[in-house]
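Exercise 7. Given the encoded structure of a 148-residue chain, write a plausible sequence.
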């Protein structure tokens, strides 16, 4: 089964959107495998956003993601990587459609509420960065027989 890493960014936590965001993925039918509220260190931020090093917004991005607590999650399900990206909406909330998380709650690209892995490789890398194996829980969700 496919896994992805999703994270409510500091703006989303401050705006009390953790519950709202959890609910969207729960109601969709995906399965939560791990979650925690945490403060990202400078080192973790640089590692997580390594692909953006050198870009004009990189320093701002690292500063922002370490500015307060984030809510890190691992979600499972068929096609969860691509589908969760669709549920998040375009990177810039200005272009994100209504009905998506960024479209409904974000205004500017630098404060776009949520992060999600963009490929299977990124998902594996990011889950490994943020979670220890023992923090992830495998279980049979009874409702899966109604979803699949
Ligand atoms: P993530 O899920 O957070 O990785 O977003 P993404 O995959 O939709 O976008 P991308 O990986 O290209 O960019 C990472 C993050 O950098 C974005 O979510 C934005 O928060 C931020 N970002 C991207 N472009 C800009 C920009 O032009 N200015 C600022 N301030 N931030 C940007
Ligand atoms: Mg990205």
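Solution.
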């Amino acid at each position: 089964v496919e896994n992805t890493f999703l994270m409510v960014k500091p703006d989303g936590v401050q705006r009390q959107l953790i519950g709202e965001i959890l609910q969207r993925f729960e109601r969709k039918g995906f399965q939560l495998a791990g979650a925690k509220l945490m403060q990202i260190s400078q080192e973790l931020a640089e590692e997580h956003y390594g692909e953006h090093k050198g870009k004009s917004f990189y320093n701002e991005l690292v500063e922002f993601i370490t500015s307060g607590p984030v809510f890190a999650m691992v979600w499972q399900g068929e096609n969860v990587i691509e589908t969760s990206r669709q549920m998040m909406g375009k990177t810039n909330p200005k272009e994100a459609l209504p009905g998506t998380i960024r479209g409904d709650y974000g205004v500017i690209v630098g404060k776009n509420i949520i992060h999600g892995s963009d490929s299977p490789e990124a998902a594996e890398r990011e889950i490994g960065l943020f979670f220890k194996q023992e923090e992830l829980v495998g279980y049979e969700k009874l409702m899966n027989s109604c979803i699949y």
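Remark. Helices lie at 10-14, 18-28, 42-48, 58-65, 80-88, 101-105, 120-130, 144-147. Students should compare their own answers with the one above.
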